[in-house]
Amino acid sequence: MTADTPHRPYNVLFLCTGNSARSIMAEAILSRVGAGKFNAYSAGSMPKGAVHPEALKLLQRLNYKTDAFRSKSWDEFTQPGAPQLDFVFTVCDNAAGEVCPVWPGQPMTAHWGVPDPPAVEGSAIEVAQAFADAYGRLNNRIAIFVNLPFNALDRLSLQRRLDDIGKTQDASREQ
Q1: Contact 89, 164 (CB under 8 A)
Q2: Active site residues
Q3: Is 149 among the domain residues?
Q4: Mean pLDDT, consecutive 10-residue segments, the chain of 175 residues?
């Protein structure tokens, strides 16, 4: 991640327990805003097996192509031939507390917890708002992430910035 690192797209994995909403949305966002600089992936410790319909609806409304998204296990990323990960971000509190696999190459990690939109009960409008809120939080964090000066930061400084991203995302929403 320093200036002597060969230039190639960084591989980023977003983790959540079910891999049905938040991690999928994060994968979509990074694939769009980080195209060429990042390869985005998502997975779950206990994948639901399907992407949440409300997540797909939101992404489609925002002009994302959704046919390739699927709920999958993080085990796929520990197998031979899996992409070597540079960054692994947990986007749900449950996944952050779980014992993660040992990732080859020792990627940098951070926790960027976002409230779980599928857990929201209420009207269709309230549920849609929960998904939109999660998307907005992830979009803000990922925008900060893709604009970090990777080549100008040593590993410790970069880790501090990654941790800070996860802590500051709600500040604008609380004011």
Answers
A1: no
A2: 16, 92, 100
A3: yes
A4: 62 94 97 93 93 96 95 92 93 66 81 92 95 96 94 92 82 40
